[in-house]
Amino acid sequence: MSTMQSPPPVAASYPRSEEQIAARVKALESLLIEKGMLTTEVVDRLAEVYENEVGPHLGAKVVAKAWTDQAFHDRLLADASAACQELGIGGVQGEDMIAVADTDTVHHVIVCTLCSCYPWPVLGLPPNWYKYPAYRSRMVRDPRAVLRDDFGLELPDSVEIRVWDSSSELRYWVVPQRPAGTDGMSEEQLAGLVTRDSLIGVGLPDIP
Amino acid sequence: MNGVHDLGGTDGLGPVTREQDEPVFHADWEKAVFAMFPATFVKGYFNLDQFRHGMERMHPVEYLSSRYYEHWLHSLESHVVEAGAVDRDELDRRTQHYLDHPDEPLPGTRDSDLVGFLETVMAQGASARREASGTARFSAGDRVRVGDDHPHGHTRRARYIRGKTGVIDRVHDAFIYPDSAGNGHGEDPQFVYTVRFATTDLWGPDSGDPRSCVYFDVWEPYLQSA
Fold first, then answer.
1. Would you list the DSSP string of chain B?
2. Residues 37-66 of A with CB under 8 A from B
3. Whether the predicted interface score ipTM is above 0.90
4. Which site among B36, B43, B65, B222 would you substitute to test the A interface, given the most A Cβ atoms closer than 10 Å to its Cβ?
5. Is residue A81 flagged as an active site residue?
6. Is residue A116 annotated as part of the catalytic site, yes or no?
7. Residue of A81, A84, A117, A198 marked active site
8. Which is catalytic among the residues A81, A112, A166, A198?
9. Is A84 tagged catalytic?
10. What is the pLDDT, as a whole number, of residue A3?
11. Does the annotation mark A186 as catalytic?
12. A165–B214: do the CB atoms touch at under 8 Å?
């Protein structure tokens, strides 16, 4: 067999083991600590912020307010970052957010085909599936099938699907429709119905 | 660049795989990589567009088969090394050291000012919106075509919209231009537009869904009148 039977090998073999990655990261971390740029306390604190403080419960809170306060709803659609700031919600990857609202005839969904842009202040850090190739490759090409086959969300053919590919620094996210049968529910109760997936557009809010 | 990262419309990558009760971070090393981003970003070693370009320059095999935060690690490594902040040989030696001594603790340096500073950086963010010079060339409702250029460096002109025609949905302010900033040539702010593309115009009359469309943000230099 010729030695050229296979293409030239890439620089390393993939996937790397957890041990290899952990050692590489620890090495870089130790060098950055020695140079005064990082501490283990910084690592723990920033992780804690996105594990416990910034997440989709914040987007849910914003949506519940929009469902119960028409003036806030209008401000949210006009300037999502300013409206969120009224509730003390904002920060990196949410400097210029745009909220898009579902209707009976239009369903919105977000994706980032070029990397994994996502509105951190209202949704937290993205799940792996949002960042991995399958979702990014197919959502713009066949959104109706992806929603149906991969997320179990079957939309009537009459509903137009609008896919927002987050290619600039504008960060899109979805204001889903308020479910029927929620009259009289408090803002807090309504927020409990708003799922992360409904803010991305790959799901709907829970039904009480 | 025509890289593998430019995934829109690629076939054959399988179904979306979802993890039940997925944690925010899957391992401690992911937390460390996440924190390294603001820690080195504030030093000016790279801007956000250069950070993205660093990931795009991974080998396609590695890009498609590695964990997400390995992408960050790859870009961070290349930028701190290129900036001269970290020596590649020293990093390799240190990696071998931790492979041989995985339980050795990290330096216990404390710096409460740094914690507060980086937490504030994350909480405040930094908009890429910039003062516009001149006026926007296009208006909402204009039909536009995305120029069919294939630049070698960083760009946000995804392949699947090149040469395609759509309608301006919204006109935004000027923002940092990734095709300049991502290639180390300054911010060069340009107007951003949201363009609406019918999926039948992107994928053809037989393959596109007539009841769905894609909204894609472009910078003014990408556009031509149609």
1. ---TT--TT---S------TT--S-SSHHHHHHHHHHHHHHTTTS--HHHHHHHHHTS-HHHHHHS-HHHHHHHHHHHHHHHTTSS-HHHHHHHHHHHHH-TTPPPP----HHHHHHHHHHHHH----EE---S--S--TT-EEEE-----SS-----GGGTT-EEEEEEEEEEE--HHHHTTTS----EEEEEEEEEHHHHH-TTTS-TTEEEEEEEEGGGEEE-
2. 37-47, 49-51, 55
3. yes
4. B36
5. no
6. yes
7. A117
8. A112
9. no
10. 62
11. no
12. yes
Is A77 within 8 Å of chain B by CB?
A: no
Write the pLDDT tens digit of every residue in B140-162: 999 999 999 999 999 999 999 99
Question: Does the pLDDT of residue A13 top 80, yes or no?
Answer: no
How big is the CA angle at A176 (ends B160 and A94), to the nearest 5 degrees? 65
- Which member of A6, A13, A30, A115 is catalytic? A115
Number of domains in chain B: 2
Partners of residue B58 in chain A, C-beta under 8 Å: none
- CATH number of the domain residue B199 falls in: 2.30.30.50
The domain in which residue B46 lies consists of: 28-124
Domain extents in chain A: 2-6+55-200
How far away is chain B from the Cα of A78, in angstroms, using its nearest Cα? 12
**Whole-structure pTM value:** 0.96
Q: What is the CATH number of the domain that holds B52?
A: 1.10.472.20
- Please answer yes or no on whether B119 and A45 come within 8 Å at the CB atom: yes
Whether A136 and B8 lie within 8 Å, measured CB to CB: yes
Residue-wise pLDDT tens digits, A71-103 = 999 999 999 999 999 999 999 999 999 999 999
The per-residue pLDDT for B133 is 86
Distance from the Cα of B142 to chain A's closest Cα (Å) equals 19
CATH T-level assignment (fold) for domain A2-6+55-200: Nitrile Hydratase; Chain A (3.90.330)
- Of B91, B96, B199, nearest to A28 by CB-CB distance is B91
Residue type, B223: L
B131 in a domain, yes or no?
Answer: no
Residues B96 and B163 in one domain: no
Could you tell me which residues come within 8 angstroms of residue A114 by beta carbon, excluding any fewer than 6 positions away? Answer: A165, A167, B5, B6, B7, B8, B52, B156, B158
Beta-carbon separation of B18 and A129 below 8 A? yes
Q: How far apart are CA A67 and CA A103, in angstroms?
A: 13
